[in-house]
Write a structure and sequence with these properties.
The protein is α/β, with parallel strands linked by helices. It has 3 helices and 6 strands, in the order βββαβαββα. 24% of the residues lie in helices and 23% in strands. The chain is globular and about 35 Å long.
Length: 112
């Protein structure tokens, strides 16, 4: 099972609110419900991302959130051997994220 995911928060659209919750916060809550323990949010402006989200939330009690700058070639983000990278400005079907989280081998999902 994948325990760490990288969420790319490159675009302001990750912080748009849908139903009173930002798209990124909605994703974090879904990942918590899928059983993940760590999420690494990479952003070109980590300070701005930290201002927009809370690292801890009662709505996602088991999830530890880490915010970092976009990695350079000299400092790659490698939190686990099996890591999934997702965009932070999209809403995903929780069943799909749960399926991806449960796999213990390399895979790629492409949406046309």
């Amino acid at each position: 099972m994948r325990t760490a995911w990288i969420v790319l928060a490159e675009f302001r659209s990750a912080f748009l609110e849908v139903g009173g919750i930002s798209v990124l916060e909605r994703l974090l809550r879904t990942l918590d419900r899928c059983g993940l323990t760590d999420v690494y949010i990479v952003s070109p402006d980590p300070a701005s991302s930290l201002a927009e989200i809370s690292l801890r939330s009662g709505a996602r009690p088991s999830l530890r959130v880490h915010v970092a700058d976009l990695p350079s070639s000299s400092s790659p983000v490698t939190p686990a051997s099996l890591t999934l990278v997702v965009r932070g400005d999209a809403i995903y079907d929780p069943r799909l994220l749960g399926l991806l989280a449960s796999k213990d081998h390399e895979m790629i999902l492409i949406d046309s």
